[in-house]
Amino acid sequence: MAHVSAAERRPQLIKAAIDLMTREGVAAGSTRAIAAELGVAQATVHYTFGTKEDLYRAVMEQLTEDLVAQVERAAPEDAGFEATVAAFAAALWRTVGEQPTSYQLLTELSMFALRTPSLSEALRSHYGGIVDVTTKLVNEAAERTGHRLGQPAETIARFFLAGFDGLTMQHLSLPDEAAEHTALQALVSAVVALAGGRLDLVTVPAG
Questions:
Q1: DSSP 62-75
Q2: Structure confidence by residue, pLDDT tens digits, 115-168
Q3: Nearest to 160 by CA among 76, 93, 206, 60
């Protein structure tokens, strides 16, 4: 049998882990089960990644990269600021409808990472990456359209992502297409208002 290098095995094992855990959940993602999914020895997983947590970290990074790439492709280049935000939200929402299992897996991995110290950095990197790319898209849209932001781009990005995460969880738990569309429109309207300075931020006492 031809030797396969660790560099070649790495993406194969990541895909196998994603396929397995998408079907059966994070709890089913043992190194033995992932190895069986690809049809290799369990030792191959440990040789390539070291530990199960290292493989999980790679899975989170891959899912994040895929999501970020889709988000970046969704940004229109010739629309006004409001239309750009709406198109961005609509395109991102389509990925929820088309890939609900990916969002479910990311949610499960995030909850698992919260209780796994060795994955805490991967979790911060995942959310930080999403915030960074969304902030960049907000800034780019404002600069391209000459729109003066009423709040810092990162504040707008975090506000949007918090609302979007909530809508995603509702879709996974209690899907309702009509209600979700209305809620998404309300979220976009609130984001645009915040970006235009027409939505005042209320001072919240520190906990």
A1: HHHHHHHHHHHHH-
A2: 998 888 888 988 898 899 899 999 999 999 999 999 999 999 999 999 999 999
A3: 93
Q: Are 195 and 156 a contacting pair, CB within 8 Å?
A: yes
Residue 55 · residue 32 · CB < 8 Å? no
What would the two tokens of residue 41 be? 């020895």
What pLDDT score does 200 carry?
A: 55
pTM assigned to the model:
0.85
How many residues does the structure list for the chain? 207
Give just the sign of the alpha carbon dihedral 88, 89, 90, 91. positive
pLDDT band at 204, cuts 50/70/90? very low
The end-to-end CA distance of the chain, in Å, is: 61
Give me the architecture of the 60-195 domain, per CATH.
Orthogonal Bundle (1.10)
**How is the chain split into domains, by residue range?**
1-50, 60-195
Spatial neighbors of 51 by CB under 8 A, at least 6 apart, are 118
165 neighbors 63 (Cβ within 8 angstroms): no
At 70-100, the pLDDT tens digits run: 777 766 777 889 888 888 898 889 888 888 9
Domain 1-50 has CATH 3.30.420: no
Indicate the SS3 state at residue 136: helix
Sign of CA dihedral 51, 52, 55, 60: negative
